[in-house]
Request: fold
Amino acid sequence: MKPNIEILPDSFLLANHAAQLICAQAISEKNLFTLALSGGSTPKRLHELLADPNGSYREKLPWDRMHFFWSDERPVGPDHPESNYRMANEAMLSRVAIPPGNIHRIPGEKPSTEEAADVYQTELRSFFGLVNDQPPRLDLVLLGMGEDGHTASIFPGSEVLQEKRKLIAAPWVEKLHTHRITMTLPVLNNAAAVLFLVSGEDKAAMVNEVINGEPGRFPAQRIYPSNGSLTWLLDEAAGSKLP
Ligand code: 6PG
Reply:
């Protein structure tokens, strides 16, 4: 599958273009629009743009029909500075009129990450009416990428890369000395659309490796929706090593 690759001049225009794409897809969706947010710092400006009262998107977006999930979370509570939910809530969700039932956060505060993963898997199964190991089909999954080629909380060498049945896993991440809670590849690759948002020169070498390098070496290379679109949105710095 050849991904769509779009390069924007800078990180602001990158966030703005992502907002345009999300807004267009949300409006075109006549029923519920289900999207998974990514963690990390890159999406913050996108979130702010979508909720900006003086911006181009807030009034257009069908917030009452939008259901928010997370592709991964840290083992912390919703008020913790490292919480992916907290970032999205402060930058966007707390600033718009969205029914609380439309927000499906990962309960990172659970005593064990295994328990948090099980609880979230049950929530996905009930919300999407899934049977057995059937993965949900999210309308849109937003992902970031680390300099090491990780995405969501699927890191190089992680046992999650082999996971075929679980929808949500709680892998140990050696380099971070912690567990994480993450959607698995069957879920991410069952999405109707996946949108990578990557910014900064520090990611340029890995962006080129992932897109043009030997396949299957890095977790981000394992993202290719079986029946959906794959788009890489980059700023010029992140795309600077692409041929
Ligand atoms: C997380 C993310 C992770 C993130 C990348 C990029 O919880 O950390 O989901 O996969 O997207 O690490 O992070 P930055 O956007 O901060 O560079």
Q: What stands out?
A: The helical segments are 11-28, 44-51, 84-91, 113-128, 185-188, 204-212. The chain is about 25% helix and 20% strand.
